[in-house]
Amino acid sequence: MNLTGLIERIPKAELHLHIEGTLEPEMMMQLAERNGIELAYTSVEHIRRAYDFTDLQSFLDIYYAGAQVLITAQDFYDLTFAYLERAARDNVRHVEIFFDPQTHTDRGISFSTVVDGICGALRDGETRLGITHRLIMCFLRHLSAEAAMQTLEDSLPYKDRIHAVGLDSSELGHPPSKFVQVFDRARSEGYLTVAHAGEEGPPDYIWQALDALQVERIDHGVRCLEDPALVQRLAGDRIPLTVCPLSNVKLRVFDTLEDHNLKQLLNAGICATVNSDDPAYFGGYIGENFLRIQQALDLDADDIVCLAKNAFAASFLNDEDKRHYIAAIDQAAR
Ligand code: ADE
Ligand code: ZN
Hints:
There is one protein chain. This protein is α/β, with parallel strands linked by helices. It has 17 helices and eight strands. It has an eight-stranded parallel β-sheet with strand order 1-2-3-4-5-6-7-8. α5 runs parallel beside α7 (111-129), α8 packs parallel to α9 (180-188) and α16 runs antiparallel to α17. 47% of the residues are buried.
């Protein structure tokens, strides 16, 4: 079977995508101009040259600076709709996207500006591109638990448009346990929960995300293989991992794609999925992540089908929609 063709046509769900991480250098320059913001860069090439990261923090510093060009609801709309158009070309049918309200509200942008812009584009993405969606609000873990609790309060008027909460930003030194009360409150308000854990942080952070935050999925989680009891727990309870291969190499979690442990995760019976994280910064959208990791690890057609089905199974779609998309994958793989 031609695996490139299979990867291109197979229906996909993307479950780990930071909308601020889809800000391409061209749009960054355009929005800076539109909003009268001075950038530290003089050209698109200048911006791209800065994307040479040594670890998660070196990326986050540049990523938060880039997000400052986002000011109006139209900016958030344009960012989100451009991502959806790009995702449609990779045959993405369903997205569960993260946004970081604190990156914006701490600069004086209102919560409603951010949510109205993103949700307007998500709605149009559904009607014009046929892409279904969920929206996940992330707390920045380098900020305080009190600030996260305030953000949770601020989100309540928008609860009908926000499906779940998550945890992102600098992992080391900011364990999931710091946010137990925030996640307890979020669950009591009806939010589903996910958390970044085991990207740079140790397996213990994954245990904390499972036991203290009671998350439905782990974002990244690749360091779980260091702890056999944790692997048993993730596989036994079918807790999905949203894995991001190109991100992991750009942020030096693995030296090369050939060193990535995705195939070992699948072999261990874990429900692993492929995602793009911050594609404008890491060199590829979801299709590119599939293609590059297939080549690097010599994945076969069964692996590709398994990864694509895992994503729909791990999504927050209802069972009927999951069955519909999984049947479409079988159709595409025939
Ligand atoms: N925010 C955006 N991308 C992230 C990542 N890979 N890890 C943690 N926080 C993030
Ligand atoms: Zn992420």
